[in-house]
Amino acid sequence: MVLTPLEKASILVEALPYIRKFSGQTVVIKYGGRAMISDELERGVITDCILLKLVGIHPVIVHGGGKAIDEMLERLGMKTGFVHGQRITDEKTMEVVEMVLAGKVNKEIVTLINQLGGKGIGLCGKDAGLITARKKTIPAPPGEEPVDLGCVGEVERINPEIIETVKDEGYIPVIAPIGVGDDGRSYNINADYVAGAVAAALKANKLVLLTDVEGIFADRNDPGSLLSVIRVDEVPDLIARGIIAGGMIPKVECCVHALENGVGRTHIIDGRILHSILLEVFTDEGVGTMVVKE
Ligand SMILES: Nc1ncnc2c1ncn2[C@@H]1O[C@H](COP(=O)(O)OP(=O)(O)O)[C@@H](O)[C@H]1O
Ligand SMILES: CC(=O)N[C@@H](CCC(=O)OP(=O)(O)O)C(=O)O
């Protein structure tokens, strides 16, 4: 598609009120999962974050990297399994998870930010006590043995001080979803939950979760059934009826948690679309599904 100069100028003009509205505010972006599928898309996500920063909006990236963990475990000949979408993480697996997320994936994203003209800084939950975690337990259905997920954690508290400090100094914080227990142990936390908790702790204006579908569908077999807005009070019924299922449940739950803790807007958008973050923040139409309080 070739745009005329007038069309190009119109796009920039459309962004103006949004730049004015959001300048100085914080947007937490969950980048991971199946949205982390190509170099081109990764560059798009990072470019969008740098552009936000340059116009005075503060992006905070929380990343996943489940696929990179799978690949490393396979290279090491280690088996992996999931229960309720959570990786069963014994001590040996935890070592690999931490090396891959806080070492490899985090530093790759930071490097790309710096190469593309931004100032990225990598953090994990251990840095400056950012994420305190406790062991996550999944209650067993009646008559069944509870599953021990090992070092899988849930967020106990977020100390946003280090994020505030670095973001105010012009850096883009990039956070790996590794938590630390009061006893110093590492915990593996689903990145969606970390993104929701970080957004809540920062009282972010927006939480944007990138995924591999256009948003939430009322009927997954009907491409015309995308729900552009859902309210928090509609969520339990959508889950109970099986309309929101699988990996979409933690995403919606983390939107609800964020909204109930002071986050302005939450969005689940298609990370397969190049520059989907800019489209969400800077256009009248927005993209994907917005989850709102009322
Ligand atoms: N109502 C729904 N609308 C859209 N996707 C849904 C819905 N319910 C469940 N899903 C599933 O949720 C998936 C996204 O969750 P997940 O695979 O965990 O994402 P990611 O890997 O990006 O973190 C979609 O690919 C889709 O299969
Ligand atoms: C407990 C748990 O399952 N943790 C995830 C952490 C990474 C993650 O969340 O990555 P994505 O966002 O790319 O799926 C895992 O081990 O895969």
Task: Annotate the secondary structure layout.
Blueprint: H1 5-22, E1 26-31, H2 39-54, E2 58-63, H3 66-75, E3 82-83, E4 86-87, H4 91-115, E5 120-124, E6 131-135, E7 153-158, H5 161-168, E8 172-176, E9 178-180, E10 186-188, H6 191-202, E11 206-211, E12 216-217, E13 226-227, E14 229-231, H7 235-240, H8 248-260, E15 265-270, H9 276-282, E16 289-292
Parallel strand pairs: 1-2, 1-11, 2-8, 5-8, 11-15, 14-16
Antiparallel strand pairs: 3-4, 6-7, 9-10, 12-13, 15-16
Helix pairs in contact: 3-4, 6-8
The structure holds adenosine-5'-diphosphate (ADP) and N-acetyl-L-glutamyl 5-phosphate (X2W).
Residues 32-33, 64-66, 69, 86-87, 97, 152, 177, 188-191 line the site of N-acetyl-L-glutamyl 5-phosphate.
Family: Belongs to the acetylglutamate kinase family. ArgB subfamily.
Main location: cytoplasm
GO molecular function: acetylglutamate kinase activity; ATP binding
